[in-house]
Amino acid sequence: MNDVNSGDRIQPLLEARGVSKYFGAVTALRDVNIQIYAGEVLGVVGDNGAGKSTFMKVLSGLHPPSEGTLLFDGREVKFNSPKESRDLGIEMVYQDLALAGNLNIAENIYLGREPKRSILGGLLKLSDHKAGLRMAQEHLDSLKIHVKSVSQLVEELSGGQRQAVAIARSTAFEARVVIMDEPTAALAVKEVGKVLDLIIGLKERSIAVVIISHRMDDIFYVCDRVMALYHGTNFAESKLADTNRSEVIGWIMGSKENPGEVAHDRVQ
Amino acid sequence: MTASNKIDPEDLVDTSTLRVKLIPFLDRFGILIVILLIGLVMYALQPDVFFTWRNITNIFKQTSANAMLSIGMFLVILTAGIDLSVGSVLALGMMTLAVTNAGGVPWPVVIVLSPLMGMLAGFINGVGLTKLRMPHPFIMTLGMLFMARGAANLISGGVPYSGLPDPVRFLGSARIYLGEFDGTRYNLPIVLLFTIAVYFVFWILLEHTVFGRRIYAVGGNPQAARVSGINVDRVLILVYTLCGLMAGVAGLIMAGRTNSGFPNAGIGMELEAIAAVIIGGASFFGGRGHVLGIFGGVIIMGLIKNGLNLNNVSSFWQQILIGAIIIIAVYIDVLRRDFATRH
Predict the structure, then answer these.
(1) Residue B148: which of B104, B106, B114, B171 has the closest Cα?
(2) Which of B207, B213, B234 should one mutate to test binding to chain A, selecting the residue with the greatest count of A CBs within 10 A?
(3) CB contact under 8 A, B229 and A107
(4) What domains are defined for chain B?
(5) Which residue has the higher pLDDT, A8 or A44?
(6) Are B267 and B261 in contact (CB under 8 A)?
(7) In chain A, what residues touch B212 (CB-CB under 8 Å)?
(8) Is A112 in contact with B226 (CB distance < 8 Å)?
């Protein structure tokens, strides 16, 4: 189905090798490996406390790994802050969306990377609100995201619209990897589909997408490959076509035998 | 009847547009309406005195120190912080100025010492808050409130110094003579122009610079700011330093107006600044408020004091009234937010 990923002929865009992360005496991650490819959606599943969110924060540069290495385009990289990973095109969409409700949509999209204009011959750099609004509108149009106005405050938006703004923000600057933490968890049912279609849209732009999700429906709708973390370490991994919901749910619970009788979707 | 004839009640009265347009307008300019109303009441009560040039410029002179403290306090409150030390820092700046002047330091140095001292105190507040990871700015600035007051007393021996050279007094007391009309001499206090200029600069800073928008972002959601690559600690340190700077400027103005330095200056003024900022529509939770509103908050406090003085009302009543206005101002904000979020 997706030839890019079969075999190891293609170099992964982002790779983690033997990553461990300790918080004091607590081991959050132990020897985790992952390969992320351009134009592919990878689903990461695992129970609460399995280390998914910590791992994503390592990938996005928020937490430096205690051990192990990260490779981007085959070169070893070290991130001291999310800014450094963003500069390479690795973007994170946080579960709490990390938007400032008191700012408008355009300002949120360009937060930290504001368009500027110089006045007085470069003596003073001002924030270029007009350019921000125009760029935001064009960017949202290209993603087919519809909002009343890009000068609307984010706190006035619905959960789905906020998620769309967060995704728009992650792709505003040549993103190559977009990592999303529970992108549909906070959404109304009717908004979930739109966000998932948006994710598929990113994949079609050859962006590598990683989503952490609890929802099997989401995983089986958008992902090409799924991997499970269990107790902070790799547990199982498969192309989506070669597995099924029961098996993936089994992985989340730490079982590799296919526990048909506990699979939620088998009930009824 | 075809489907196209159906009338959607939403189309008849577009309440959403009314809300979208009216509320931001009231947010920005509502305070001017309040000022106008208070002014009208004052005028009705004291028609001969209130609306005279002399009285109006007096209001500005009397509120100028609070105007400086309030704009600095506004920046801090925008970041969901608080600076309790500004009154003490004002005194520290003022006493540094008075003591060095008495010690024979030339006036150009004396003038800059008060703002510099303020900046230093504010910088320490910011660094302490972020690098010592104080749980809340309340703690750091409460510490500074005591330290700055102590230092002001220490360097002056706890006694006032009076008599300052004219250049040092310039900002606080100089006036431009405008001319004489109908036997009245019209003067324009320099501090009035200065206050307007300062507020204009802060308006540019907050609305039109990247740094200003980042202050709003830090106040709106510090986590979002952090993951967007904004150095939140740096923003906070700069904000507290600017707040300290404005307290030092207030010290310079007050020294100029009173021609002296007294170590008890500014006691309780941090609370007046907080009151002006809250009346001016800023949110204690950060990220909300406009420079124009804060200017309005300062003027409202000045108008009320002035009006009550003109009517010989006890200053104790002033305190009660200002307290009530703070509560009413925030309650109006609560109602406004209810209205804005109702769908």
Answers:
(1) B114
(2) B213
(3) no
(4) 34-336 (1.10.3470)
(5) A44
(6) no
(7) 127
(8) no
The stretches in chain B having pLDDT less than 70 are 1-21, 23-24, 340-343
pTM (predicted TM-score): 0.86
- The one-character DSSP state at B159 is -
The amino acid occupying position A46 is: G
Rg (chain A; Cα; Å): 19
Q: Does A263 touch chain B (CB under 8 A)?
A: no
pLDDT at residue B113, rounded to an integer = 97
A98:B229 CB<8 A = no
pLDDT category at A86 given cuts 50, 70, 90 is: confident
Q: What is the pLDDT of residue A137?
A: 95
Contact call for B227 and A98, based on CB within 8 A: yes
Which superfamily does A3-98+175-266 belong to?
P-loop containing nucleotide triphosphate hydrolases (3.40.50.300)
Contacts of B343 in chain A (CB under 8 A): none
Cβ-defined contact of B213 to A62 (cutoff 8 Å): no
For residues A56-85, average pLDDT: 88
Indicate the domain borders of chain A: 3-98+175-266
> Is B48 strand, coil or helix?
coil
Kindly indicate whether the ipTM for this predicted assembly is greater than 0.90, answering yes or no: no
Q: In this predicted structure, what is the pLDDT of residue B6?
A: 45
